[in-house]
Amino acid sequence: MNGPVTSSRLDLSAFAEQSFAVLGLGVSGLSAATALRDAGARVMAWDDNDDRRAAARARGIEPADLNAEDLTDVSALVLSPGIPHGHPHTHPMIERARIAGCEILCDLELLTRAEPDARYVGITGTNGKSTTTALIGHVLAELGIANAIGGNIGAPGLTLPPMGRMGVYVIEFSSYQLELLPRAVIDVAILLNITPDHLDRHGGMDGYIAAKRRIFDGQSAGQTAILGVDDDICRAIFDDLAQSVGADVIAISTREARPGGVYVADGWLIDDRTGKAGRVLELANLETLPGLHNAQNVAAAFAACSAVAGESVEAARIADAIRSFPGLAHRQELVGYRGDVRFVNDSKATNAEAAAHALAAYDNIYWIAGGIAKEGGIATLAPLFGRVRHTFLIGEAADDFADTIGDAIPMTCSGDLRTAIADAVAQIESDGADGATVLLSPACASFDQFRSFEARGDAFRETVRELDGFMSAGRGGAA
């Protein structure tokens, strides 16, 4: 939560005396079941997983097998987004709910019904959602606009504090969640980009695109649609929306000038929303938001915060707030320096596509990579190998990565992360490499050596901070 609010708990009294079925007791489902129960609703909750049912019991919620319950008088089925309801199959409970005429939705839909007077900024896209969401929340807070961040990042919807008429919810939406918003309308809706992802869940690319596009459903005059137009799919959606909706439709681009939009040119963020193109922010100065992919995130955040704040807030104030963004943990997080050597934690890069963003953002890289490789390995990163001075390989993928890299990059098979950091420091000293970057961007899952990418990133941060002469950047979140 960013900015002051008068109460820490949502008023869900409108749902009292109603009946809800909750299917899926992960983080969002269990929080929804708990909040609805505490508000006086009748809640029947179920999960096919024994451990999650046990977690519900620990919260005082006795699981009820929904396959045996009468759903005739149930107001809605609150569905955890991860449960399939069309592709690649449909959970049997969902079919029963449909037959009973039960509305099917997710916790974020209930949030919008509980807080109808608040404003909503929604962010989706294949890549960049979390950074853009966190950046918008940070900027709004710096402008003195109370806001709460949640959804697919951070807190589940029904655990967020009330915002009221003066506040803003900044919500990251996955494609799964967008399919479960039957009535919600987003005031400032952002679609960053679309590349193939989750295709089995959506029945193919057309289904995935349709899910992402839902973020603009219901928008009208006084609301804002912001779209990245650097990929063909989003460009086509932009062209269609610009002709068919009453909302203000704004293009953002890192590749070309967009009259009436926000774009990048000659290393600057350009604001042309009023037809008077002007430089607002030099991107090279954003040390916690490096690379072209982050330039798109910055453009989206600038456009969104301008829409929320209104004309009374000068662009320079928004630019200053962007400059002060501390970065998002594990996503090209600047941990700090040892002399002029920077250490960057990009543990969230669990595949080659994600690692490519980081490799393209720096020069003179000492790259730590490895773990459990994803399909395809790192062959697609070959065009970026020239940016790397030395590679330090860890985990199960080390041998395969070594075969792929071959003679293209000098390498050391370090085995584990702590050894890789020590090897990198020693190699930089041996090379006399000024201005080097030690980059953890594994292009792999973490589960061979760590329980999660967060645990891997935390270990990198903690180990680096132990180095003699290390100076923290004071950014990127606590360990």
Biggest β-sheet description: 9 strands, mixed
CATH topology of the largest domain: UDP-N-acetylmuramoyl-L-alanine:D-glutamate ligase
Strand order of the largest sheet: 6-7-5-8-9-10-11-12-13
**Any guess at the CATH architecture of the largest domain?**
3-Layer(aba) Sandwich
Structural class: alpha/beta
Strand content: 15-25%
Oligomer: single chain
What coarse outline follows from CA principal-axis ratios? globular
Number of strands: 22
* Structural domains: how many: 3
Within CATH, the superfamily of the largest domain carries the name: Mur-like, catalytic domain
- Alpha plus pi helix count: 15
Q: Unreliable runs, pLDDT <50, ≥5 residues?
A: 475-479
Question: Gist?
Answer:
Helix content is 32%, strand content 21%. With 479 residues, it is an alpha/beta fold. A 9-stranded mixed β-sheet has the order 6-7-5-8-9-10-11-12-13, with helices on both faces.
Secondary structure topology:
Layout lengths: L18 E5 L3 H12 L3 E5 L3 H9 L17 E4 L12 H8 L3 E3 L1 H8 L4 E6 L4 H14 L4 E5 L16 E5 L2 H4 L9 E4 L7 H4 L2 H9 L10 E5 L3 H13 L3 E6 L8 E4 L2 E4 L6 E5 L9 H18 L5 H9 L9 E6 L2 E5 L6 H10 L3 E6 L1 E2 L14 E7 L3 H8 L5 E5 L1 H15 L5 E4 L3 E2 L7 H13 L4 E3 L7
Helix pairs in contact: 5-10, 10-11
Structural summary, described in words:
The chain is an alpha/beta fold. It folds into three domains: 13-105, Rossmann fold (3-Layer(aba) Sandwich), CATH 3.40.50.720; 108-323, UDP-N-acetylmuramoyl-L-alanine:D-glutamate ligase, CATH 3.40.1190; 333-467, Mur ligase, C-terminal domain (Protein-Tyrosine Phosphatase, Chain A), CATH 3.90.190. A hairpin with a 6-residue loop joins β12 and β13. The longest helix has 18 residues, at 292-309. It has helices at residues 27-38, 50-58, 92-99, 107-114, 129-142, 175-178, 199-202, 205-213, 232-244, 292-309, 315-323, 352-361, 398-405, 417-431, 453-465; strands at 19-23, 42-46, 76-79, 103-105, 119-124, 147-151, 168-172, 188-191, 224-228, 248-253, 262-265, 268-271, 278-282, 333-338, 341-345, 365-370, 372-373, 388-394, 411-415, 437-440, 444-445, 470-472. The two termini are 19 Å apart. The radius of gyration is 23 Å and the shape is globular. The chain contains 15 helices and 22 strands. α5 crosses α10 and α10 crosses α11.
